[in-house]
Structures are given as C-alpha cells and as structure tokens.
Give the backbone structure.
Amino acid sequence: MKASVRWVECPRDAWQGFSRFILTQEKVAFLKRLLEAGFAHLDLTSFVSPKWVPQMADAEEVLKALPPPEGRTYLAIVANEKGLERALAAPNLTHVGYPFSLSETFQRRNTNRSIEASWPLVAAMVERTEGRLGLVVYLSMAFGNPYGDPWSVEGVLEAIARLREMGVREIALADTYGVADPKRIHEVLKAAVARFGPEGLGAHLHARPEEALAKVEAVLATGVTWLEGALAGVGGAPSPETSSWATSPRRSSSPTWRSGASPRE
C-alpha cells in the first residue's frame, strides 16, 4: 500500500518573488480555487516588513477574506516578535512557520539575527503559540549552503534534537537554493528518520523542473511523507549574493509528479 502524502501548497513562495504587486482579490481568488480543488494545507502569506517583502503587505486582508479553515491548515511565515504579534491577532490563521537557517550568513540576511540569538525567539514562539497556533520550524540550508559556512549531517541532527527538546514537533528541512542532489537529500533525511522517526519531519525543496521528481523520490524513500511545493514549480528565494527576492530557476518542487499521492493529507 502506498503511503498518503501530506502536501503543503506554497503560493507564498510563488508570489513573493514577483515584482508586480498581486492584488489582494487575485490572491484570495487563487487560494479559494486551491481549497475547492482539495488542497488542505496552505503556506499562504507572511508577517514580515513590507519594506523587505512588499508582496506580503496584505497578509491580514488575505486571511480575513478566506473561509474558516475547518480542519485545514493556513500557515504564515514570521521572522521576529513583531511578526508573531501580528500572527496571533490574525483571523483564520492556524499555524506559523519560522525560518531557521543552519547557515549563519543566511540567517543574518534573512532574519537579521544570528543563529545563537534565534534560539530564544524559538523558545518564545513555543510558549506563545501553545494552545493558539501550530508552530513549524523550517531548517533552511539543511542540505548545505552556497556561502561556505560549516555544514554537516550531524549538525542538522543536533538542531532537530534541540528543537524537539524545546517542544517543536513539526520541523521541515529546506533546500533553500536547490544546492542538494537526491543523494544528499536522501542521506540527511535517512539519518534524521533513523534518530527521530518520520513523524513531524518534512521536506521543502527547490529544484529545476528536470530535477524535481528525483528529489521527491529521494524524500519518499526515507519514509518522510510531508512535502512542500508550488503549482507549476513557481517559487523563489533571496539571491545568495544580494538577498533580494527574485523568481528563481531553482523552483519549488511541484505536485505534477505521480506517486500515488494526493494534495490531501
């Protein structure tokens, strides 16, 4: 029997790189179409400064216009205390996600704080979301980084262990720039599953279209069944050189592959 897959559809990842502001009503209409199609888990906005990500300036308005989640997942990314405050007050939101990079360079560029300074923030998020919102920590650069910062499989496992000790149950390993090949993806996730089991572990991958299927299959071969991506593979990440957002050729893995999986959990 083929295992069911928890697919998280990430329009936020797709939208944030577009220079043209997508009208709020257009975003809402697209999200409603996803819900009607059966997608039960959406990463749909972020509570960050519009100075850095102008596309997400309408986060509250988008959430307010959506139907009640009613068992579905509506997740927004937060990067600091102010973003968390907005998320806790937002309508319809069910989960927040925090991007925690294992690369010191990227963590400072992406969240304006060091790795060491991020641990107390995660602890505060665990405490403040308890009984109110689900919390997902995205371990970005989990498969390596383009900066030459230290990286190892054991370092990834240590980060997961520390998060679990803090009470974080849902952790997604992210290949932020698509630097990892299927072998590396399988190696890291296999080690994580061996130590922690597959429950609560996910993979958020970026890849060129011709690479996507092999990477997805590498994940599934480890027993991890929580995957994230975007329709048509549209997605982006900050440039390693400039940290500016741009729709990248290293795109989010797309659910157009066939493996017996469904967009439903």
In short: The chain has one domain: 6-252. The longest helix spans residues 115-129.
